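A protein record pairs a chain with a discrete description of its three-dimensional fold. The following entry can be read in just this way.
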Amino acid sequence: MENDALPFEEFIEETTELLDDLEELILKWETSCDDPETVDALFRGMHTIKGGAGIVKESRLADYAHELENLLDQARAGKVLYSEKLGSVLLQSVDCIRRYLSSVGNSAQPDLICIEENLREIQPLLQTPPSLSNNIDAARVTEQTTSVAETQVTPTPYLITLKFDPETFRKGRDPLLILQQISELGECVPVVHQDYLPDYAEFDPQTLYLWWTLKLVTTAQPTEINELLQFFRSGNQLSVVPFEETPDETESVARAHEEQLNRAITDGFELTPGSVKLDYDDERGSKKYENAESSEASSATKSIRVSLDRLEKIQNLIGETVINQSRLSQLCMHAEQLDPEFAASLSAFYEENARAVQYMQDEMQAVRMVQVGTVFSRLRRLVRDYSVKSRKEIRLVIEGGDTELDKTLTDRLHGPLLHLIRNAMDHGLENSEDRRNVGKDPKGIITLRASHKGGHVIVEVEDDGRGFDLRKIQEKALDLGLVDAQDDLSTQQLLQLVFHPGFTTTDAVTEVSGRGVGMDTVKRDIEALLGTIDIVSTQGKGTKLRLNLPLTLAIIDGMIVRVGLLNFVVPLVSVIEAVRPTVSDLRKVKNEGEVVEIRGEFLPLVRLHEKFMVDCDYKSPADAVVLVIQQGERKQGLMIDEIVDQRPVVIKNLDENFVQVPGMSGATIMGDGRVSLILDVANVMN
């Protein structure tokens, strides 16, 4: 079997997901040391990695995972108790496996030094009595061991059906590996079904003709058995069902399996559609096979793994469909002038098609949505490692982790959040002694919070630390020449200065922060996602940074506006209302420029034609239209000539082919084939 034919890609992808789960479980174990379910889940995850490594013939990784499995097995038995050292060793092992996978994926030599160092740290944990290594009295050890013994379950019989794709050998897979893995779980009685074997003249050695049923009696849970099968799920018919007692007249294991298969199908067990149903042909004394098409699909067939690149291609095709829908709208208007009867039929088709396109767009967006908790959870490790190294007591609290956001956004959100968390730990939170002196809890709290608000997702990073020193910010701004001494800046204006490149109020440079780079990058990255970032801080009580992000970057609802001969697109979620002000509503404020009064509220006025130096039809706002736009808590008036339309628009990135234009977040193609620029509302307001 050629190594290139082994399922490396599936192994690497699924093991990477398992490592994320293991890391989260280790951090959970740290806060709930007496939870046996957490340890069991860790053991099962490591056992699955070992089995997968064996399938792809990565024996060194399989041996390493076996040692880790032994350590976790002793933890399950109460022989090894949780300690900070054990947690660090397990987290380091997750890092080592990640490095190994990265090397295998890039066809490079695996980093065995990391594994060897980690194994040296594992050995003392296995050899040292738990009462000594963890300073826990023997009574607690005995109690935990007794508790584990009491929770042991009675062995349960299962019927496992393994029917592989006939092309299994050509795909580089070996069914005997999974049979061996299953046999290690308990008492296993396999039955080989040979009825598909062809005549010798038609026999192909590269085709798999056999299939298996196994009666497995084990203390393992069904989830553990299914984890062994997960690397073989794709393209094969595999099932695990309870093995009931077979009738007394059953005279062989083979017949027992067949009776159980028939009963499972009759009673509605979740067998994979297409599983083989066995019946006896009484006249010929042989077995016949037929496909059992069941409406009850197994969990393995209810979802498939699709690469993100393929989803991006589908998203682009949907985007082109949206553009074609705009062109169809233009054709309807032209048809109305030429043939009203034909135009009516075309308009009816347009409306039906619009509903289908909208449904397709919504479904695609739902497919791309992932929970922001997947990003938040990855930051637990960062907080834990910093807390151990700095000896600061820090607790990370996650709220709203089930809030959904576009996959593209979550991937690009990790970097900004990483920097904000580092700043909160290093600059925001005081050490335990200082917190006690001011009457605070010695353990600092950082809260990551997510929620939906309209068409946006709000992500907040909050700490209960020392907060920003506004006086120090102003002094630093004066030194850098960012403000003048006579400037009377508001609290929000002062706080926004921390996003200026090179701005820092910290004298000491640490490994984490203090060099004056990062916060400007955070703001730039958030604005590249069509979002905004605001700061709320109270000295001595803490700081909250609020990120306002769109749900998706692929297709947005836009308002098409005209200024002179040019059309622009304003994201509809940023538009509050459109008004035509009177002359008396306009004011000029010293050092602030123009403002417009709308319902008793004075808003700064931005003339879009002056912002981009283009011609316009109207010089006075009283003759034009003013859009009230909002980002975060800020509002402004945007002067335009006319509102043209409102429709979904496809965002096309300009960065790949053009220089980034300030104030523009991208472009879109209109129904008449012309290109319209999409406004970056945050940049325009700044």
User: Anything to note?
Assistant: The chain is about 45% helix and 25% strand.
